[in-house]
Design brief:
Arc Repressor Mutant, subunit A, single chain, 12 helices, five-stranded antiparallel sheet, Enolase-like, domain 1, 346 residues, 17% strand, alpha+beta
C-alpha cells in the first residue's frame, strides 16, 4: 500500500474530506463539496486536479463518468491507517455499554449477549462476539444459597474464568445439602474439563447414590445440567443483522448483504473470527478484501480481542457493516466494550 507520507498535505486533506463526506452522505463527492469544506482556499479546478491524481494512485474512483469520486478499498485503508481521527465515547455511550455488560446474576453467555446487543444498537450495524471456549480444566465448583428456592453455581476454571449461573432448588433446602453437593463435585474435578466432569459425575451418581441423599443428587445434577454440551466450540453470538439492510441503495448492495448473511450463518466459518485477533493487540480493522471471511460481501470488520486474568486472548467482539462505516465513532466503542468484558471475566 502506498505510504501516507508520499502524499502531500493538500492530497491528504482532499482524500480525508472525500472519505468523511462519503461516510456521512453515502453519495459520490464532487469538487464543489470538497471546496466548501476545505480549511484553506482552493478552487474547484485545483481540487479536481488533486482528485484526478488520487484516482491515478488508486485511492479514488468515479462510479460514473459525470459523477463525483468515491474512495477505493485502498483509499479507505490509507484513510483509516493514517488520516482518521478517532473520536471519544460520550458518557451516555459508556453508561449504556457498562449497564449491558454488568455480570451480576447473569451467566457469561448472557452478559456477552447483552454486550453484543448494546454494541449493535450503538453502532447501528451487526455485532458479533465469540465467547471463550471452556476446554480449560476446572479448579472449583461451589453452590451458594440465594434464598428460598434459588442457588448460585460458581464455576472457576484453571485459567481464571469465573462463571455464575442460577438454578432452582427445593424450597427450604438445608445449607448442608449445598455444601455436600459442592464437596461431591470438588473431589472429582482433578484437572478435568467441564465436559469430562459432566460425564464422570453422571456415571458416578448412578453407582454412588447410596452415599448421597436424594436432594443432594438432584442439586448436583441441576448444577451440571445448566451448561450446554457445546462448550468446546465456543459460543458465537450475532445481533443486529437487520441493521445491515437499512442502507441498501442498489441491487449490487443487496447482493453483497445477502452474501454476508450467508457467511454469518456459517457457524464453523465464523468460529475463525478469533484467529483474526490472536496475533495482534487492540482493535483491528479489516476492510473488504483484507478479510477473506467478509471480503466477498464488500464489508468491513472492526474487532478487538478480550483477555482472561492470565492476559490470554479467549474471545473477540466486533462490529461488521458496509465499508461506509463511521470508523471514528465505532472503533472506540469496540475497544471500550472489549476492555469492559475483559475486566469482568478477569
Amino acid at each position: 500500500m502506498l505510504p501516507i507520507a508520499e502524499l502531500n498535505e493538500r492530497s491528504r486533506e482532499v482524500l480525508r474530506l472525500v472519505v468523511e463526506s462519503w461516510v456521512h452522505d453515502g453519495e459520490p463527492v464532487g469538487s464543489r463539496t470538497v471546496s466548501r469544506r476545505l480549511s484553506v482556499g482552493l478552487s474547484p479546478a485545483s481540487i479536481r486536479s488533486v482528485m484526478a491524481d488520487l484516482e491515478d494512485l488508486g485511492l479514488l474512483y468515479a462510479p460514473h463518468v459525470s459523477a463525483g469520486r468515491l474512495p477505493t478499498e485502498h483509499g479507505l485503508r490509507m484513510f483509516v491507517s493514517g488520516l482518521l481521527e478517532v473520536g471519544r465515547l460520550s458518557d451516555d455511550e459508556r453508561s449504556r455499554i457498562d449497564s449491558h455488560c454488568q455480570s451480576t446474576g447473569r451467566s457469561l453467555e448472557q452478559m456477552l449477549s447483552e454486550a453484543t446487543t448494546a454494541l449493535s444498537g450503538l453502532s447501528r450495524c451487526a455485532s458479533l462476539v465469540l465467547a471463550p471456549k471452556t476446554d480449560s480444566t476446572l479448579r472449583h465448583i461451589e453452590f451458594v444459597s440465594l434464598g428460598p428456592g434459588r442457588a448460585l453455581v460458581v464455576m472457576v476454571t484453571s485459567d481464571g474464568l469465573v462463571e455464575n449461573r442460577l438454578i432452582e432448588v427445593p424450597a427450604g433446602l438445608p445449607p448442608s445439602v449445598l455444601q455436600q453437593a459442592s464437596n461431591f463435585l470438588s473431589v472429582r474435578l482433578g484437572g478435568q474439563t467441564l465436559a469430562d466432569v459432566r460425564r464422570l459425575v453422571s456415571a458416578d451418581l448412578d453407582s454412588r447414590r447410596a452415599e448421597l441423599d436424594e436432594l443432594t443428587a438432584r442439586v448436583v445434577e441441576a448444577g451440571l445440567a445448566i451448561w450446554g454440551g457445546d462448550e468446546d466450540q465456543g459460543a458465537l453470538i450475532i445481533r443486529g443483522q437487520s441493521n445491515l439492510l437499512q442502507d441498501v441503495h442498489a441491487i449490487e448492495d443487496l447482493e453483497r448483504i445477502r452474501s454476508l448473511f450467508e457467511t454469518l450463518e456459517a457457524r464453523q466459518q465464523m468460529l475463525r473470527l478469533v484467529d483474526l485477533v490472536q496475533t495482534g493487540e487492540g482493535v483491528q480493522i479489516f476492510i473488504g478484501s483484507d478479510n477473506d471471511l467478509f471480503g466477498a460481501a464488500g464489508c468491513s470488520l472492526i474487532v478487538a480481542p478480550y483477555q482472561n486474568s492470565r492476559e490470554q486472548i479467549v474471545g473477540a467482539i466486533g462490529v461488521i457493516g458496509p465499508t461506509r462505516l463511521n470508523y471514528a465513532r465505532i472503533i472506540p466503542m469496540v475497544d471500550y466494550t472489549a476492555r469492559v468484558i475483559g475486566q469482568l471475566i478477569g
